[in-house]
Design brief:
Elements lengths: L20 H7 L11 E5 L5 E7 L19 H20 L5 E11 L8 E12 L2 E10 L2 E12 L1
Antiparallel strand pairs: 1-2, 2-4, 3-6, 4-5, 5-6
């Protein structure tokens, strides 16, 4: 069975930028090579669904070593991108908490490859939200095809 996207993308402009790098870095602490999201292209008014974009470049630190001659974006970095989106959504919603700790990852499935030149869109949907814990479903999409899915648990600190 073909997996379904977390939410309907009809009417969402994936090329828009609701939050750029500057706004992302005001919420998330990740910098330099460890910032895995380049833009938030969509956030629902309820702040429970969002889409981030990661522009996968050929000059990134992992390219020379993660399959020389055939670079493939590492799965752990896809998960990290989903965790950073989950962190952004939760911290933006809480408003007064400075940090989101990565507490768990479940239900991971890799369904395709991501290579330099790709734009990876990460869909996030908050499925549990409490002051001390959040759970977010995530999916990665490249050219309309799902490349991974994951459940991220985080703890605001």
């Amino acid at each position: 069975m073909v997996p379904q996207f977390l939410f309907d993308l009809t009417g969402i402009d994936l090329n828009s930028v609701q939050f750029g790098v500057e706004e992302i870095e005001k919420i998330n602490p990740h910098r330099g090579a460890m910032r895995m999201i380049d833009a938030i292209t969509f956030m629902s008014p309820e702040m429970d669904r969002a889409i981030a974009r990661k522009d996968v470049r050929g000059d990134e630190f992992w390219v020379p070593g993660h399959i020389p001659g055939r670079p493939i974006f590492p799965g752990v970095l896809m998960i990290e991108a989903a965790a950073q989106l989950a962190s952004f959504v939760t911290l933006k919603r809480l408003g007064d908490v400075p940090f989101m700790g990565f507490a768990g990852v479940d239900e991971v499935k890799f369904r395709g490859q991501v290579v330099p030149g790709d734009s990876l869109y990460v869909l996030g949907s908050l499925v549990e939200f409490r002051r001390r814990r959040s759970v977010c479903k995530g999916q990665g999409i490249v050219r309309g095809t799902m490349v991974f899915e994951v459940t991220i648990t985080g703890m605001p600190m």
